[in-house]
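BUG: 3D viewer hangs when loading the predicted structure for this chain

Environment: internal workstation, default settings.
Expected: structure renders.
Actual: progress bar stalls at 90%.

Input used:
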Amino acid sequence: IAGDSPELRNLVLSHNAMDALLQVCNVNNLDTQKQISLQRLATWTLSNFCRGKPQPEWQYTKKAIRALKIMSMSEDEEILQDACWAFSYLTDIDGDN
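Structure tokens produced before the viewer hung:
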């Protein structure tokens, strides 16, 4: 739902979805396939939270950046790919901003 439109993303974020997601992102030891799958899903979800114009409010963006810092150190290609997409969404600034 959060990736469908900025309005829906903001609605989801306003219900503390970012904080719940960040708890999943803090997994440091990804030694099982289940943990890797969960981290992949969390990274994909986070990239959807970062997507769309206008961009999410700064209170959410700064939390996303902290989580993306952790995810960008992963050795898993899917996690890295979605983390890079999230960074690209957050840095996509047009001349109006």
